[in-house]
Amino acid sequence: MTRLLRNIFRWGSRLQTKLAKKAGVLVVVLALPLVLSACASPEQPPILLTWWNVFDDPLAYRDIIKSYEENNNIKIELTTFTYAEYEQELVRSIASGTGPDIFTIQNSWLPEHRDLIAPQPQIQDFVDATQDELDAIQPRLDALVGLREYVDSYVPVVAQDFVSEDRIFAIPLYVDSLALFYNKDLLNSANRSVPTTWTDFADTAEVLTTRDANGRITRSGAALGASSNINRSIDILTTMMIQSGATPVDASRQFASFAEEIAPPNGNTYNPGFDALEFYTDFAIDTSDHFTWSLDPETWYSIENFASGEVAMMINYSHQVEAVRNKNAKLNFGIARLPTLEGARFYETYANYWGHTVSKSSPAVVEAWEFLNYLGRDDNNLTYLQNAQKPPAKLSQVPAFENDLDLGVFADQAAVAKSFYTPDAGLTETVLAQAIEDVILNRRSVEQALQVAASQITQQLQSREYPPTGI
Fold it and tell me: Model-level pTM greater than 0.70?
């Protein structure tokens, strides 16, 4: 075979992608692959798919990748990054044309980074193809998960986060959510049951908090109230906002709306964002009845002090179960559903997870999405969950975790986990952390701190056009 033909076979199935906006509608244009069949020539060198990931041990994917490579003319090169370096390096590399084919995105990133992504391809994307060419490529596209199957298969938050304008933008393998970690011995010693509402939570935290003669906290009933020394503080505050009825942005995605008042049809006007921020910060204000948490970062940090037995309750994700055990294997702790509002009609918690997607600059878009569909297949997805010890993203896999003492609660909650639309996840975390600090240090009132945070996010929303998400 000539060098020219070898190059055609090698690169023929690779694609070039262009995403544009026309009258607010997503437009995806794909160049048709020269090799239309999914079956490669025996003489064709394998197509290389580069894949960037964070957090996961590569061993969680080893058998899945090996099986795929053995049955397809594909070579997968997986690189794992630290979280601190990942996002900046990803954006830089894609802009320079040196980025990966496949990469991982956090579930709040789509509004900010949709322009980096080639959504799962559809037949109408191949605008310059002949009918014969379309007929040849159609079976490969038909084999990919359809939108309805995607929406029906995953817990609802997945479609909320990774579907935009009826296109699939990522394949998640798990969905984590906030839950209550509690010290069984401390609750039992005070004859307290596991709290199910925030009122019960606050009362239990107050009972379990102890102080020395100078009023300094020696044991905290609950790690809550601050930002810098509470792990996932902004997620917890955001959850309280969601449970209270706050919405992150208005329908036009031009204004942050979590600071606005709500007027229920049969009730009094209230401000859910205000209520959430006030309740949250009360735990770190020494004049509050709920005061249970010290601001001293040298002595107190939520995970460390919970693991040492100095904190009775904390709120966190499933991956901290192993972290707590590694710090103190003898700690007698349990996990329960996140508390909710008294009399709430619906139970809600907060989702935090990652999905796998394809770069707009990848020359192998179809091949990359074919691999992601294989990765998300039920059997492979379950293999990953068992290897990585993560709660499921698919509704059908929730029963498999029913008796799992570590992951059962998180699996059970996944169907009611919610997310918070943000134009910039980093900015949102920064301004809400500042709002918390302003309140607990008495620099601003709750109302002022909330309005300042909303104003900063509104400014970001109005700086560019952000896409819709959800169905």
Answer: yes
